[in-house]
Design brief:
CATH architecture of the domain at 9-141 and 187-208 and 231-243: 3-Layer(aba) Sandwich
Largest sheet: 6 strands, mixed
Helix content: 10-25%
Number of helices: 6
Strand order of the largest sheet: 1-9-8-4-2-3
Radius of gyration: 20 Å
Structural class: alpha+beta
Length: 264
């Protein structure tokens, strides 16, 4: 099944107008302002990159990458896209430190200045060696801060989603004074879809899950890291869908004027 992208920026707003379903998890006010570059090229074959496009993910979500990528693969395949192995990417990437030096600063855990050049070199070789490859998708797991707002029934809202309080253990009544507005970690997926010209076709972010759960002991509540981190396929799929809109229309997404596509 071929997917021909004929969407032009001037018309994206018209094509992405949907009715908001009652009871939806969509948080309109926090939708990420996606950047989408309309293209006439067919996107039949995609590779999911084994590394981040931006800085490395936080330590406690790195081992969740395979699970998120599996859901992403299924999401793409359900929409007629062929997803191929990323082993060729891994093979080329392993040679980059010898050419460009240190790519991730061990002291800060962030990318060095040479990282972007290494990415472009890898993508250039990858597309040259694979003429049928139409795009490479980077699926970075990122963590940001949010909080529960009591005005909306203690819901956390970020990057287009709303989530209820995650309760861990036995729920108990909380004595007055608990600060629900204290910051908690929230996980999102940041997608960069890069085409054969090494330009970003789509950049967006979709919220997935709160990383912290509420625990209560003897009436004293606190937030601790949840023990079922990123195993909820439905939440992952929702985040993936948001991050790939408007390449694939996400149900309930309102009319939004996109910006021009650019790297992070």
């Amino acid at each position: 099944m071929s997917i021909r992208q004929t969407i032009k920026p001037a018309f994206v707003g018209i094509l992405t107008t949907f009715l908001i379903a009652c009871g939806s998890n969509l948080s309109i006010d926090t939708l990420y302002p996606y950047a989408f570059r309309g293209t006439e090229a067919e996107i039949d074959t995609v590779m999911i990159a084994p590394i981040n496009y931006g800085n490395p993910s936080r330590y406690y979500v790195r081992d969740k990458d395979p699970a998120v990528d599996r859901v992403t693969r299924e999401y793409l395949e359900d929409r007629g896209v062929r997803v191929i192995s990323n082993r060729p990417f891994e093979s080329i990437w392993k040679k980059m430190p010898a050419r460009y030096g240190v790519l991730i600063d061990p002291a800060t855990g962030t990318n060095t200045a040479a990282f972007k050049d290494a990415i472009n070199d890898t993508l250039g070789q990858l597309f040259s060696n694979n003429p049928r490859l139409d795009a490479v998708l980077f699926t970075d797991l990122i963590v940001k801060k949010t909080y529960y707002a009591e005005r909306n029934g203690r819901l956390a809202e970020w990057d287009g989603i709303r989530r209820k309080v995650k309760v861990q253990g036995v729920a108990e009544d909380i004595s007055g004074g608990f600060n629900w507005r204290q910051p908690i970690d929230a996980i999102s997926i940041e997608s960069h879809l890069v085409g054969r010209d090494l330009q970003v076709i789509l950049h967006s972010v979709g919220g997935i899950q709160v990383a912290d759960a509420f625990e209560s002991v003897n009436g004293a509540g606190s937030f601790k890291r949840r023990n079922d981190l990123l195993i909820n396929t439905a939440e992952i799929r929702e985040g993936v869908g948001l991050s790939l809109h408007p390449l694939f229309m996400f149900e309930g997404y309102p009319s939004v004027s996109p910006t021009s596509a650019s790297g992070r």
